[in-house]
Every structure is written in C-alpha cells, then in structure tokens.
Design goal:
The protein is mostly helical. The protein contains three helices and no strands.
Length: 64
C-alpha cells in the first residue's frame, strides 16, 4: 500500500513538472507578465510625452 501511494505521488509530480517549469509553464507566464507590465509603463511614459506638445498650439490659445 505504501508503494502505491509513493508511486501515485511520483506520477502526479511528474505530470505537474511541465506545467510549472516546462515550456509555457507558470514560471514563463509570470516572467511574460512582468515584462508586459514594464512595457506598459514605458509606453505610458512615452504616450504622456507625445500628448504634451499636441495640446499646445495656436488653435488651443485662440479657442477655435
């Protein structure tokens, strides 16, 4: 009975390994999420810089 339990736990462990560590596993997902958040911050900063000069101009000063 003990060997059956050990064998089943080992089988579950072997099945879970690719889900956590393998290609496309959770570790990769977390890494991609971190990179995505960094890219969003950079894009937001660049977007704020680009919008600034467009708001100022001769038309915005005259109210047209």
């Amino acid at each position: 009975m003990r060997w059956l339990t050990v064998g089943l736990l080992a089988a579950i462990g072997l099945l879970q390994y690719p889900l956590w560590v393998g290609k496309g596993g959770w570790l990769k997902v977390w890494e991609y999420d971190r990179q995505l958040q960094q890219q969003k911050e950079v894009t937001k900063k660049l977007g704020n810089q680009e919008r600034g000069p467009r708001c100022r101009g001769p038309r915005s000063e005259t109210g047209l």
